[in-house]
Amino acid sequence: DVVYNKHKEEGGEIMSIAETIFEQAKNLPEDMQKEILDFALFLKHKKDMQLGATMDQIITEDLDALTELAE
Length: 71
Prior knowledge:
This protein has about 70 residues and is an all-alpha fold. It has helices at about 1-10, 15-25, 30-60, 65-70. The N and C termini lie far apart (about 50 Å).
């Protein structure tokens, strides 16, 4: 957030979060860039797992209604 706001204060183009991450990462050594990528993939996996768990919960809670609709 500090980097993102800094670009606004300098009168520069407002950058998206993704653009800011890219700008910060592109000058890092490759091993650190890989760490950033690994972390981003971990966060995506975590989000996907949470979505799957939410869908499982909805199906479990509404199984009777879903079964009735399927008939």
